[in-house]
Design a protein that fits this description.
Among the domains are: about 110-185, Alpha-Beta Complex (Penicillin-binding protein 2a (Domain 2)); about 260-595, DD-peptidase/beta-lactamase superfamily (Beta-lactamase, 3-Layer(aba) Sandwich). The strands form 7 sheets. Strands 2, 3, 4, 5, 9, 17 and 18 form a 7-stranded mixed sheet that branches. The longest helix is centred in the N-terminal third of the chain and has 30 residues, at about 40-70. It has about 600 residues and is of the alpha+beta class.
């Protein structure tokens, strides 16, 4: 009653519902996968790649470490030292140069250089030029204005200013004006010794003369100084050596005598002006050892202002230019003939005034013959014809060998730059052409420098030795004590007997009326008037070089004097009229300065 029955659940409702899959065409044919899925190879490849990179890097670092620590260790250490050290190069003056009497020829002194920088001018250029010209006496405002236009900066206006002038310029307070303090080479004798001393450039490097040839000798001894510095670049004070700038005070002494040099230059200048000559030169040598007592070339230059001179004047042409010596070589040929034994002092030759060789006519300068003359008269008359006959007595081979033994085609070895070798024809040409023997007999057909001729004449004066001409005596201290002296080679080319005989024969030339004759003194000499060879062969018309060579005193030969005057103008221009008077003046000065006693 009243009981109500709960509805009876259907047995089907207790069962789980069956899910129905949607069957597709693709799912029907797809096989069912069983087990784990196969892993991808990409992660493993990445791992190997990373390991390869790391291993390669480690190997590279190891190789680099090997290179730095083993292979390049010394080189890197050297570079580190260069970075950590400073090479201090303090200003070290060149050695002074003095003459044989101690006179200063070259020295370093403090000077000032005035530079202008127009781009920095804050005042009109005309005003700057006007103010500077009041201090620079040799510069006008107009000249300064022209210099200002050269460039915008760094124009050198004046060099070698004194300290007083430099201070006056600084007191002007002008912008664009720079006065540099520097040391420069100074030549107190100016032009007087330029041919010997030469000069140095603005970088203090020798460019001519002794300044160039003796560059190493003129540099004071001072080892390179290396000091340590910190990482910030500061130099460690306790690493500086004691007496950092200490240097010896030795000076380079030359053999030249300033007193003689002045006298020689004066005489040569006057003669060049008198004959309107192209140029001239004088060499005075002590034949006993080759010391050059005087060496003068005219015209010359001022080494303090070398930049204003012609380039051809900056060389010493007594060692750099060749010429045919002409009759001044005849005494040398006489010595060769005496040495060969083909003549004696009293041998006589007939001079007809003309001799023909290989079809070439050879005459005397006077165009006339001298008849039968001995050796002394051959030199007195300067007979070309007789000299040809004399040297023909030697076989060609023998004559050529003897010329070679004189070292004509070799340098003298003088301590000057720019020396050239002489020129001697080849043996083949000399053997084939008889005219070569003929022309060589009176000093033509070959060429040498004036210095080489002095060297050969010196062999006649000193007993037959070919000494080395030189200018450097050595290094001396302030007291004049000699600390070092170079050695100069020599060799015997004539016997003492032959050389003395030739000098005595040369005396007869002077005694017979030469302009070089000096009372109470025995002087040997020989004139020369030689044609000048052209650049393309043959000889230049109306061009000659006159010369005179002398040896004194004859009883005890010691000095050789050579005078050359190139291309004198006028009718009466010969060695006897142009060069001999200069030699006379030089000989008188030499006798006075050296105190030579009279011969008679």
């Amino acid at each position: 009653m009243g009981n109500s029955r709960s509805p009876k659940r259907s047995s089907r409702s207790s069962k789980k519902p069956v899910s129905r899959k949607r069957i597709t065409k693709n799912s029907v044919n797809t096989p069912r996968r069983r087990g784990k899925a196969k892993p991808s190879p990409l992660p493993k490849f990445r791992l190997l790649l990373v390991w390869a990179v790391l291993v390669t890097g480690m190997l590279g670092l190891a190789w680099k470490a090997y290179q730095l620590q083993i292979v390049q260790a010394e080189e890197l250490k050297r570079k580190a030292n260069l970075q950590q050290t400073v090479n201090i190069s303090p200003y070290i003056p060149r050695r002074p140069i003095i003459d044989s009497e101690g006179n200063i020829l070259a020295t370093d002194r403090l000077q000032y250089i005035l530079y202008v920088h127009p781009i920095q001018f804050k005042r009109p250029q005309a005003e700057v030029a006007a103010k500077l010209s009041t201090i620079l006496e040799n510069k006008t405002p107009q000249e300064l204005m022209e210099r200002f236009q050269e460039r915008k900066t760094g124009i050198p206006i004046a060099r070698g200013l004194s300290e007083g002038v430099a201070k006056q310029i600084e007191r002007l307070g002008l912008d664009g004006i720079d006065v540099d303090r520097t040391y420069q080479r100074f030549y107190p004798q100016e032009k007087m010794m330029a041919d010997v001393i030469g000069f140095v450039d603005h970088e203090r490097k020798g460019q001519a003369g002794v300044e160039l040839s003796q560059e190493k000798l003129l540099q004071r001894d001072l080892e390179s100084l290396f000091v340590r510095r910190t990482a910030l670049g500061a130099i460690l004070p306790n690493s500086l050596p004691h007496n950092l700038l200490k240097s010896n005070d030795w000076r380079v002494q030359l053999t030249v005598d300033m007193r003689l040099q002045r006298a020689v230059r004066t005489a040569l200048q006057q003669q060049i002006q008198k004959f309107n000559a192209k140029r001239g030169a004088v060499i005075v040598m002590d034949a006993t050892d080759g010391s050059i007592l005087s060496l003068v070339c005219e015209p010359t230059f001022d080494p303090n202002e070398f930049y204003e001179s012609r380039m051809d004047l900056l060389k010493n042409w007594t060692v750099s230019d060749l010429y045919e010596p002409g009759s001044t070589f005849k005494p040398i040929n006489v010595a060769l003939a005496l040495e060969a034994g083909v003549i004696q002092r009293n041998t006589v030759f007939h001079d007809s005034g003309l001799v023909t060789v290989d079809g070439w006519p050879i005459r005397n300068a006077t165009l006339r013959g001298n008849g039968s003359i001995n050796i002394a008269e051959i030199l007195q008359t300067s007979s070309n014809v007789a000299m040809v006959h004399m040297m023909r007595r030697l076989k060609k081979e023998d004559y050529y060998r003897r010329l070679q033994a004189l070292d004509i085609d070799k340098k003298t070895g003088i301590d000057l730059p720019g020396e050239v070798r002489g020129r001697l024809k080849s043996e083949k040409i000399f053997m084939e052409r008889s005219i070569e023997v003929a022309t060589s007999s009176f000093g033509q057909g070959f060429a040498l420098t004036p210095m080489k001729l002095v060297q050969l004449q010196g062999a006649l004066a000193n007993g037959g030795k070919l000494v080395t001409p030189h200018l450097v005596k050595g290094l001396v201290d302030v007291e004049g004590t000699l600390h070092w002296q170079p050695k100069y080679p020599s060799k015997q080319i004539f016997s003492p007997e032959v050389s003395q005989t030739v000098v005595e024969l040369m005396q007869t030339v002077v005694d017979e009326g030469s302009a070089a004759k000096t009372e109470n003194y025995r002087i040997g000499g020989k004139t020369g008037t030689a044609q000048k060879a052209g650049p393309r062969g043959g000889y230049l018309p109306n061009a000659k070089i006159t010369s005179f060579v002398s040896i004194l005193p004859v009883e005890s030969p010691k000095y050789v004097v050579l005078v050359l005057v190139d291309e004198p103008q006028g009718a009466n221009t010969y060695g006897s009229t142009v060069a001999a008077p200069v030699a006379k003046f030089v000989i008188d000065a030499l006798i006075s300065l050296k105190g030579l006693p009279p011969s008679r």
